[in-house]
Amino acid sequence: MSDENTQDQAGGETDTFDLWVAGTEEPQFQPTDEGRQEISEHESEDRLAAQFGRVVEDDYVFDEDADDDERMIVNMGPQHPSTHGVLRLQIELEGEIIRRTRPIIGYLHTGMEKTAEQLNYAQGPTNVTRMDYLSPLHEELAYSLAVERLLGVEVPPRAAAIRILMTELNRISSHLVALATNGLDIGALSMMIYGFREREAILAFFEKATGLRMNHNYIRPGGVAADLPPGWKDDVAAILKEMPVRLQEYDDLLKENPVWLSRTRDVGIIQAEEAIAYSITGPPLRASGVDWDIRKVFPYSGIDQYEFDVPLGERGDVYDRYRVKVEEIEESLKIVEQVMDSMPKGNYRIDDRKITPPPRARIDESMEALIHHFKLFTEGFKVPAGETYVAVESPRGELGCYLVADGGPMPWRMHTRAPSFYNLQGLPIAMADSLVADTVATIASMDPVMGDVDR
Amino acid sequence: MSPVLEDLKEQFEAVVWEDSHGQDVARVPADAWFSFAGAAKEAGFEICGDVTAVDWMRLRPERFEVVANLVSMQHRIRLRMITSVGREDPTIASLTPLWPGANFAEREVYDMFGIEFEGHPDLTRILMPDDWEGHPLRKDFGVGSVPVQFKQAHQVS
Which of A29, A194, A307, B69 would be a feasible disulfide site paired with B49, CB 3.0-4.6 Å? Predict the structure, then answer.
């Protein structure tokens, strides 16, 4: 990296800030100094190195020239409407420019990894589903895949297809919330209402299929909790029909909106090198132009048999992150449609009674079924000793589950690689040397879910 | 095993290689932790995906295991490196100088397990309050309980 990049950054070739001037026939771009995002020539080598991720001293380096009196530390949060939960930021300001940011987290820490050690493998999904409350099905999927890999079992094709159907729908609903809150934070209030409205249609389907709008506990080791409800195809088809219309509406609202563009273009830039160095995954990484999607690289649950593209951004700014999310919704719709058309027949969970409970009717007639049922819901099933790591692509990035089994009915250690936790490390880089007014736009575009960050 | 890993295998003889459910695992001696990670980064592992730890209490002679998940974008492979850290004064070299992304993860391990990372720029608690005593994910840290109010209350007939 670096020389070229630095040159590019410092050279000032890129326009600073483009402003569309009303009343002209063609958009005429006038560079202004407001919202200047790139590192200017007089930046010290130290700070450049820190911003490119070559040096990590304390995330970034102070500008030694500035007087202490010129700096002010502002605490934002943890109780703040646009911090997406209980994120606290210590922001060091020099006038209106952010010099240094320190995310302070842990306000929502509930020790779920410790709790997981007290719950057996069948109870585990009830715990992990509460971590990332906007994409609970992905959490359940990662956990279930890890348990299944340790058990050495493979779920039936229908169970795998249901899992893909539900997680991709979940991706849409999660991205809708991201778009909605992103819009709200920047001032596009209608986007907030639209996003939550469309999400409701998906949550209604989730409620029909799983019994709950959130915290489903639907994907479990060995398959899924229940088969899809009767008439599910109509519901999914209705969502598939509705969403493209709505997406067009969002595009009309935001895509070329000059106010939206001026609030998001070239704001909160994360370079590809920085994103990789700071382990950022998911839409923020792809918005920087890095083609990296777990669904393509390390496919799970047979997602490689469906056709979809990986949308990429170019500049890695707030606008690109918004675009990537919108386009990912379109791609997820493609996957959902393919799954719906090719849904295999068969069992929705494995037939091994040591892992999945027997059907309710069997308990009345079979002693073995009763015993299996009793054992499963008191002791749970045992998993052979071993350790494994399984990753899925959650709406926020690589969601991994590191599971260590000691041969008993409870995990010896369960660790979740939370994408929001790692993506939050990119926040100080994205915010360094930007205006304080752009803070909320940058936070919203990183889409952190504090339940996922703090666990 | 991928040729990238074969090269690493030749460079470090003390590392024990395992196949854990189809995933490549390198059990690295604690003193080679940083140099092995550096060689892995040279070999093309651009991302340190995750750093975590496991507390084995009395089940193993070395109490803690530190686990790092590396990802190579160019070779599209994963590598898990695991090392053991002793009970007394658990210390290991930090990977943050190599991968800045390991910063938060190592702070979390320090917070939750009390494992010190040498060379970490800002080793402070991250999830628990700064004045918290103990390290919650250690096996000898109790889960705690909430006192139940009104336990002695009179029964309402």
Answer: B69
What is the distance in angstroms between the Cα of B54 and the nearest Cα belonging to chain A? 7
pLDDT tens column, A116-140: 988 889 888 999 998 888 899 999 9
Please write the tens of the pLDDT for every residue from B2-14.
888 888 888 888 8
A360 close to A226: Cβ distance less than 8 angstroms: no
Q: pLDDT of B22-33, one tens digit each? A: 888 999 998 889
CB contact under 8 A, B97 and A56: yes
Q: How many distinct structural domains can be found in chain B?
A: 1
CATH topology for A112-454 is Cytochrome-c3 Hydrogenase; chain B (1.10.645)
Task: Identify whether B145 is part of a domain.
Answer: no
- Identify which of A373, A406, A409 has the alpha carbon closest to the alpha carbon of residue A387: A406
Kindly determine whether residue B104 and residue A425, on different chains, have CB atoms separated by under 8 Å: yes
Is any Cβ of chain A less than 8 angstroms from the Cβ of B76? yes
State how far the Cα of A320 lies from the Cα of A209, in Å rounded to an integer: 34
- Look up the CATH number of the domain holding residue B41: 3.30.460.80
Of A408, A410, A409, A412, the C-alpha closest to A387 is A412
Q: Do B48 and A279 touch (CB under 8 A)?
A: yes
Query: What ipTM does this complex have?
Result: 0.88
Domain assignment present for residue B32? The answer is yes
Instruction: Say how many CB pairs under 8 Å bridge A and B.
Output: 100
